[in-house]
Amino acid sequence: MTDRLRVARPPVAELHVHLEGTLEPAFIIETAGENGIDLPWRSLEHLEAQYDFTDLQSFLDLLYVNLEVLRDADDFAAVTHRYLARASAAGVRHAEIFFDIQAHTRRGIPAETVIGGIRSALDRGLTDHGMTTKLIMSFWRDLPPGDAMDALAHVLDAGLPIDGIGLDSAEVGYPPSLFVEVYRMARDAGLHVVAHAGEEGPAEYVREALDLLHVERVDHGIRSLEDPDLVERLVRDRVPLTVCPLSNVRLRTVDTMADHPLPRMLELGLLVSVNSDDPAYFGGYLDANFDAVVTQFGLDAGAVEQLARNSVDSAFLDPVGRARLH
Ligand code: ES4
Ligand code: ZN
């Protein structure tokens, strides 16, 4: 925990963080140099001047250029290792981490390299930081569903160690219904299933993710509030929503932090947790996200405890792993 936290925080799980979104600008420039990658940025300062986003797509455009510095298994291990160290310092005891498989395989990097590199660092995370982890392979929803099917089939055939699948990238115009078969294959293989929905897209996409993909958890889901019947269902079924406050402000999904629906979501009894999404892009790791909402809304220790407990309850932990954090 850092001194920026005004309220002491119990053990917390981070459930919504994209590995590619933890690439810090200095690491991007350094790794580009090492790997001989020609980025469009003349300098660290030039890169740092790119982080003013107008919407989700403007951020994704930058993210997808920068992630190209990752080439070999050691690069994937290095970025994972750095995230785990930083998250541990922020008080995270359990992390469920997304990676975007197609971002790498489309550049000719084998899934074996990506997953092998990440996994080696996750194993070290347990010994170095006592951090337990899950790895969630995410698909870009703006690519054809057949592409996601092929990627999943390969990972399953090769027996590569992932714990679940997710759905991300540009949301509007790419409803969950496109991915029914992919999710069926994943569930049949015993994988956990989550999806981004209701970030920029409508509440209807949250319904589709639940009804058609049978997701166990919804990433973001903030636009669910526009549909009272959906809210009632999410509360009744204790569907976890992984909310990312700094991300929502920086991508202008909400106007300002004062307008963020997190306090309302807590009041409604939704199972919400606080997460960092892409911490190197949106102004901070989990501690900064907690700090932002605690400061903005004057959350008391009870509310912070509730958010931390929600994160543990929302995690894909077995009873022993959960008990360790409660
Ligand atoms: C993402 Cl939709 C979305 N949000 C945040 N980070 C991402 N990385 C890839 N897709
Ligand atoms: Zn996300």
Q: Your description of this structure?
A:
It contains 16 helices and 8 strands. It has an 8-stranded parallel sheet. It is globular and about 50 Å long. The protein has a single domain, classed as TIM Barrel, CATH 3.20.20.140. α7 (145-157) packs parallel to α8 (180-188). The longest helix has 19 residues, at 111-129. With 326 residues, the chain is of the alpha/beta class. Residues 1-6 have low confidence and may be disordered. Bound molecules: 6-chloro-9H-purine and zinc ion. Zinc ion (ZN) binds at residues 16, 18, 168, 196, 219, 277.
What fold name stands as the CATH topology? Answer: TIM Barrel
Q: What fraction strand?
A: 5-15%
CATH class descriptor name: Alpha Beta
Q: Please, what is the average pLDDT?
A: 96
Distance between the termini: 17 Å
Biggest sheet, open or closed, and with what strands and sense?
Answer: 8 strands, parallel
